Amino acid sequence: MAFGWIEEQDRARREAGLVRVLRPRPAASPLLDLASNDYLGLARHPEVVEGAAAAARTWGGGATGSRLVTGTTALHTELERELADFCGFEAALVFSSGYAANLAAVTALGPHGSLVVSDAGNHASLIDGCRLARGTTQVVGHADPEAVRKALATHDGPAVAVSDTVFSVDGDAAPLVALADACRAHGAGLVVDDAHGLGVLGDGGRGAPQGAGLAGRDDVVVTVTLSKSLGAQGGAVLGPARVIAHLVNAARTFIFDTGLAPAAAGAALAALRLLGREPERAARARAVAAELHARLTAAGLDAVRPDAAVVSVRAPSPEEAVRWAADCRAAGLSVGCFRPPSVPDGISRLRLTARGDLSGEQIERAVRVIGDTRP
Ligand code: PMP
């Protein structure tokens, strides 16, 4: 039977308790949300929603074509200019998702004959970028700049190191300065994915690379998503103008993909402007993360100290993690649940988003529910 092997895979997944299911979210959920990536609570901000609506009214429901044909509007170029200026880079290029931006950056900067050095904890989109790149990938230990240095030393020719700035599973930060030093010492480029840093880290949320003093460097390229702290959808690559111009000509997920929907570009632009006016939003998300961690730890839970706005709590097993998340849900709290294969070390976790708009009472309630439902 065609696709007969699916049932076999499915059985194995069921036996391991790792089947995933889709659960549509109601528009007005009664649940307290610590599961989304809406770090600054901007996805429903009236200015962001109006940014989307106004863009759709002006430009229509879709971009109508690839960026190189009809898919570039004034909104796309404005967003690129303002994103680059905000984060401190020469130029930016907007993509239909952060995933596409990562595929673009790694494939276009890891050409045939190059070495791509990738952190073992990197996001799936960077891993897929490595798989698609024509260069040779070497995976190194998590957050280990010395291993990056050693790997780069073995190679003669173009090279690039690739890392998340904040790792999505545990919310820990990469050693960006040491990574950049290792790359510079070997004449290699550094590509970092700031999906979880933009809007949270750096001055007023200008991102982890800006916070680490790497903004505007000619050997550093940053990818971001517009779908987390900016509450919109889409992605971007930021870096030197010559690198961005290269992506326009070489990145397949730019050339062959329909441009970002105008509504998403409008929402992202509105959120970016809002963040520029209200820089305290970033510090608030970090403060919520610190408070959440302190309270979870005080309650005896195994929470990882957060470097940004992701707080991870270890669970004894995948089954118990699923049950724990379901019990939280039944008690009015929505939390993320990470299990294999999304966790490379095999340790399942509840994953909490320290949204900057959570009140002290909501943080307290969340910790109480998580504590009361623990395995
Ligand atoms: N990088 C990281 C670290 C992420 O967590 C995500 C989103 N899960 C992405 C990239 C992909 O971004 P997008 O959702 O915009 O495709």
TrEMBL record:
Keyword annotations from UniProtKB, A to Z: Acyltransferase, Biotin biosynthesis, Pyridoxal phosphate, Transferase
Catalytic activity: 6-carboxyhexanoyl-[ACP] + L-alanine + H(+) = (8S)-8-amino-7-oxononanoate + holo-[ACP] + CO2
Alphabetized GO MF terms: 8-amino-7-oxononanoate synthase activity
UniProt EC number: 2.3.1.47
Superkingdom to which the source organism belongs: Bacteria
SUPFAM superfamilies: PLP-dependent transferases
Occurrences of domain Aminotransferase class I/classII large (ranges): 31-370
PROSITE patterns recorded: AA_TRANSFER_CLASS_2
Keyword Acyltransferase: yes
Pathway: Cofactor biosynthesis; biotin biosynthesis
Keyword Oxidoreductase: no
Coiled-coil annotated residue ranges, if any: none
Cofactors (names): pyridoxal 5'-phosphate
PANTHER family, per database record: 8-AMINO-7-OXONONANOATE SYNTHASE, CLASS II AMINOTRANSFERASE/8-AMINO-7-OXONONANOATE SYNTHASE
SUBUNIT field: Homodimer.
Protein family (similarity comment): Belongs to the class-II pyridoxal-phosphate-dependent aminotransferase family. BioF subfamily.
Protein name, UniProt field: 8-amino-7-oxononanoate synthase
